[in-house]
Amino acid sequence: MRTGAAIRIPEIYAVFGVPDRLYLIMEFIQTDHIASDLQRARAISDIASIEVPLDISPGPVGGGCIHMTNFWDDGISDVDYPSIQDLAGHLNRVLEVFARHRKLDRIDFSHERMVCCYTDLKKAHFLVDADGQLWVSAFRQVNFLPETFMYFALSKQLVSRDSLPPEYYGMIPITSTQNLQALSAARLVSGR
């Protein structure tokens, strides 16, 4: 467990898998209740504020395909993107092929910061223990991505009972949403 942090993350003791399943053995946390929306917004803000290494590729810590269930059909990108330019290029090709009948802006991440995006926003992943300490779990969908992806995750979860109300979005350090419409269109035309 991290100490002295605004949020705590359970320690992972072991990870093992069988075909199509991954299992974690992690620290037991005696929780008292689910975090409030304000606590969730603060936790998401803390995660989004993590300093991103300059030479990082889009995707999870350690590299690999992007995990984001509300964007890709099976929750994982089919491609491991070496750069944000490669990611934007792929999404623009998707738009060109599938959205020819619509005039859409091209996706351009060149003016966006990369942020640490926590996109699995279910309330059950934000728990408070008896001492009032906030715990966050379920980090499979944490990726370093252009900041529009974080706003996309927030805006696309509005139909869920786990939704973070829009009045809390301002707490999350996102300064650019210029690609949101095109990113949403790329998601829709790619079958999601």
Show the helix and strand layout.
Layout: E1 7-8, E2 12-18, E3 21-26, E4 31-34, H1 37-48, H2 84-98, E5 114-118, E6 126-129, E7 134-136, E8 142-146, H3 148-156, H4 180-189
Parallel strand pairs: 1-7
Antiparallel strand pairs: 2-3, 4-6, 5-8, 6-7
Helix pairs in contact: 2-4
Protein name: Aminoglycoside phosphotransferase domain-containing protein
Question: What do you see in this structure?
Answer:
With 192 residues, this protein is α+β, with helices and mostly antiparallel strands. It has a single domain (31-189), classed as Aminoglycoside 3'-phosphotransferase, Chain: A, domain 2 (Alpha-Beta Complex). It has four helices and eight strands. A four-stranded mixed β-sheet has the order 1-7-6-4. Strands 2-3 form a two-stranded antiparallel sheet. The chain has a two-stranded antiparallel ribbon with strand order 5-8. Helix 2 crosses helix 4 (180-189). The longest helix has 15 residues, at 84-98. The chain is globular and about 55 Å long. The model has no long low-confidence stretch (mean pLDDT 84).
